[in-house]
Amino acid sequence: xxxxxxxxxxxxxxxxxxxxxxxxxxxxxxxxxxxxxxxxxxxxxxxxxxxxxxxxxxxxxxxxxxxxxxxxxxxxxxxxxxxxxxxxxxxxxxxxxxxxxxxxxxxxxxxxxxxxxxxxxxxxxxxxxxxxxxxxxxxxxxxxxxxxxxxxxxxxxxxxxxxxxxxxxxxxxxxxxxxxxxxxxxxxxxxxxxxxxxxxxxxxxxxxxxxxxxxxxxxxxxxxxxxxxxxxxxxxxxxxxxxxxxxxxxxxxxxxxxxxxxxxxxxxxxxxxxxxxxxxxxxxxxxxxxxxxxxxxxxxxxxxxxxxxxxxxxxxxxxxxxxxxxxxxxxxxxxxxxxxxxxxxxxxxxxxxxxxxxxxxxxxxxxxxxxxxxxxxxxxxxxxxxxxxxxxxxxxxxxxxxxxxxxxxxxxxxxxxxxxxxxxxxxxxxxxxxxxxxxxxxxxxxxxxxxxxxxxxxxxxxxxxxxxxxxxxxxxxxxxxxxxxxxxxxxxxxxxxxxxxx
Length: 502
Ligand code: NAD
Hints:
Layout lengths: L5 E3 L2 E3 L6 E6 L2 E10 L3 H18 L4 H17 L1 H12 L3 H21 L6 E4 L5 E9 L2 E5 L7 H12 L3 E5 L5 H13 L7 E3 L4 H9 L6 E5 L2 H13 L3 E5 L4 E5 L5 H13 L9 E7 H16 L19 H16 L3 E4 L18 E4 L6 H4 L6 E7 L2 H9 L3 E2 L1 E5 L3 H10 L4 E4 L15 E2 L12 H4 L1 E9 L21
Helix pairs in contact: 2-4, 3-4, 3-6, 4-5, 9-10
The chain binds nicotinamide-adenine-dinucleotide.
């Protein structure tokens, strides 16, 4: 079995602990992909020391030249798209169509970042005083810690690392334990594209050890974390105490609302993709389906038949609709929520158990599960499950549907199926989410628009699009007075002798 390494101080190195963990294929646990380092705090120290040196050089590289390297990284991702999709499916489980999409999102993000090197706009505004210029511009921050989840093994690291690098920062990257191979290949690509080696450091290992050491390191002033709300709270606590700049992207409990006037077939296609794509392990997964009373039975009946017909299997095999869950802990969590739903008198209409057919014996498979008659406010309806469980809630009116959507602690995405343009615009205005889709499921973000959620999904920052560049850079203001005299702002221009300026 192959042993992989960290990338620290410009070299592929063993962890200081000498310890490793196994990376296995969740569709077939007898398939061992490789051993990856269990890094410790000493590895973080070495990585920070090297990244600080890298930062000093990289920050002086003109932003368009930094962009050229990211464009090359995009080209390399294009060339290796199928290979990366295959290794990603092997370690993460989602079908190849989805992992190809994951790589494509990385490509889109690379090309967007490359051109941002020629923008990174500041402002030049008139000064209130004569012969004086006033302007703002953007500076890099320093060494950024990047901690990512398992479900988008390439796309999410690229959302963070490309903008961080483009802005002139150095990066310490810790991928999720379940997907270290994709993270390793991504760093190989950055190096091949020409990134100076000390500008990127890769540390594998346990979140609570090496992740926590990155979060609490005093010389990592900015941190970007995507993962569960529970871990995000811990990260936030430490960063708050240390006054670090922090971007948090966390859990969701996203709802699709199908109103009586909707196209039921379109809504059905959408909910199957939204609820069971990526085995329900998307932050934007459709985990609640809010059906208005007249369309309720029609959509529900067909939904159950279609969910039962979905083909589970190895995502690398042609024809697979749904891959495995990421690991056994995740499958046990999904099982617990089946028990919780039944204990709360929701109707289990299909699924609810491990899938055991031929070829599924050694994987973490779970049948697509639909619960009906789910009560708004129940645990099944409120808590993030992160698996293939869909809760159906019946409502009588648009107002009730919007209230149910909003009455959860998360606020990532929502979706409304309707043919009424007034209701569509009301939804955009009134639903408490970072993203609302009209006549499309809760998933499908595009790389050039801001991405993130409100309430306990996030802390006000956004990934993607133009906004993320503000997170990875600091605004600085410059004033240049070329009048040759002392000009006092707010005094000389508004004081007793202000007319002398006219
Ligand atoms: P997780 O919280 O278990 O782990 C995320 C990362 O944090 C991993 O790299 C992990 O090693 C690290 N980590 C764990 N404990 C840590 C600690 N104490 N200190 C520092 N780092 C630590 O999440 P996961 O299971 O990988 O991913 C699923 C979660 O991510 C879901 O809640 C999902 O909603 C969320 N998610 C959110 C978004 C979004 O954009 N809002 C996108 C994808 C996933």
